[in-house]
Write a structure and sequence with these properties.
Layout (H helix, E strand, L loop, with lengths): L6 H7 L1 H13 L7 H14 L3 E5 L2 H11 L7 E5 L5 H8 L3 E5 L21 E4 L11 H11 L2 E5 L7 E2 L2 E2 L6 E5 L13 E5 L2 H11 L21 H10 L3 H19 L14 E2 L5 E4 L3 H10 L29 H7 L2 E4 L7 H9 L2
Parallel strand pairs: 2-3, 2-4, 4-5, 5-8
Antiparallel strand pairs: 1-9, 6-7, 6-10, 8-9, 11-12
Helix pairs in contact: 2-8, 3-8, 4-5, 4-7, 9-12
């Protein structure tokens, strides 16, 4: 049996450090807004290369809080890719704005910058590029379009901890960026968690008030209407341990992807991930394409090899967005891609023999 993600092996590799970090929180009864939160925010902002980091409840909260801090709401539009997890789009709806979907490109499956301009209207306020599967989007072109049209760029980095675009970590290009620490992420907690990073002091102040019931530093002094979104101290303590291993784990993911590519490049009817020289893909997911996907899934399943599809439908065609009445012809690339994509097992501890066994099963 080969699992899709092996969180147990990951835990066992650093078990003593994790157990000690959790025990310290328990011994000190330090559960909310503890020292580990301050330490993590400092460590993560330093790692990403931003002036500020605020931890929060999860990655979806992070996007919503950013949008709210930027004053985006009813009557506004935000451009998002047609292929991503629903959080990117539903966060826009949840602040009262409207997501406007743009098709993806065929080479790394991120938003197609060449199709953004035609979707910009007088109501457009921001673009949210998603660094899908761990691969950075085409940021130079997206930033240029945003600048020329007076739009914010908000990076969705939920799958791209440590990924780089032209030598600079993602999360440092937009006005603010969101991260998720869901357990299966490259940097994952043992429960939900998220963070916002920014270099803008005004945005930093606003997001902190929003996430803390509208308070900044003084309890019961509610300057604005806010919400409650915070990372638990125990989760921060776990992340403080794991962040020290992130680069080495990412290196192992990249090495595993190279081994996959070597094996699968010999197979007919398989499209392997394209490695672009100007960016560092950290392979949160290793995603291939094949018109024979169902046969491949069946063959792997028979050998107890787990797979996934990320994602089975473009967002414009999930039931929640049926009110938009989109046609398949509106998103031709996303439609083709979602009928062919297949995610294979990917985690830092995956072995060469496991990769060979997976590829031989084809």
């Amino acid at each position: 049996m080969i699992p899709f993600v092996d969180l147990k092996s990951n835990y066992l590799s650093i078990k003593n450090e994790i157990d000690n970090a959790i025990q310290n929180c328990l011994s000190e009864t330090d559960f909310i807004k503890g020292k580990s939160i301050i330490d993590f925010e400092r460590l993560f902002s330093k790692y990403i290369g931003t002036d500020y980091c605020m931890s929060c409840g999860n990655g979806t909260d992070a996007i919503e809080i950013i949008l709210t801090a930027l004053g985006i709401g009813p009557g506004d539009e935000v451009i998002v890719p047609a292929l991503t997890w629903i959080s990117t789009a539903e966060a826009v709806n949840n602040v009262g704005a409207e997501p406007v979907f743009v098709d993806i490109n065929q080479y790394n499956y991120t938003i197609d910058f060449s199709k953004i301009k035609e979707k910009i209207t007088a109501r457009t306020k921001a673009i949210i590029p998603v660094h899908l599967y761990g691969c950075p989007a085409d940021l130079d072109e997206i930033l240029s379009i945003a600048k020329n049209n007076g739009l914010y760029v908000i990076e969705d980095c939920a799958q791209a901890h440590g990924a780089e675009y032209k030598g600079k970590k993602v999360g440092t290009f937009g006005i603010a960026s969101s991260f998720s620490f869901f357990p299966s992420k490259n940097l994952g907690a043992y429960g939900d968690g998220g963070a916002i990073v920014t270099n803008d002091p005004d945005v930093n102040e606003k997001i902190r008030m929003i996430a803390n019931h509208g308070q900044l530093n003084t309890k019961h002094h509610h300057k604005i209407i806010g919400r409650n979104s915070r990372l638990d101290t125990i989760q921060a303590a776990i992340l403080n341990v794991k962040i020290n291993y992130l680069d080495s784990w990412n290196a192992k993911r990249i090495e595993a992807a190279e081994k996959y590519n070597l094996q699968l490049s010999k197979k007919e009817s398989i499209v392997i991930p394209e490695i672009q020289k100007d960016r560092k893909h950290v392979f949160h997911l290793y995603v291939i394409r094949s018109a024979k996907r169902d046969r491949i899934i069946k063959a792997l399943s028979e050998k107890k090899i787990s797979t996934g599809i990320h994602y089975p439908k473009p967002l414009p065609f999930v039931e929640a967005y049926s009110y938009k009445k989109h046609q398949i012809s509106d998103f031709p690339v996303s439609t083709i891609i979602t009928n062919e994509i297949l995610s294979l097992p990917m985690f830092p501890e995956i072995t060469s023999s496991q990769i060979i066994a997976i590829c031989d099963s084809f």
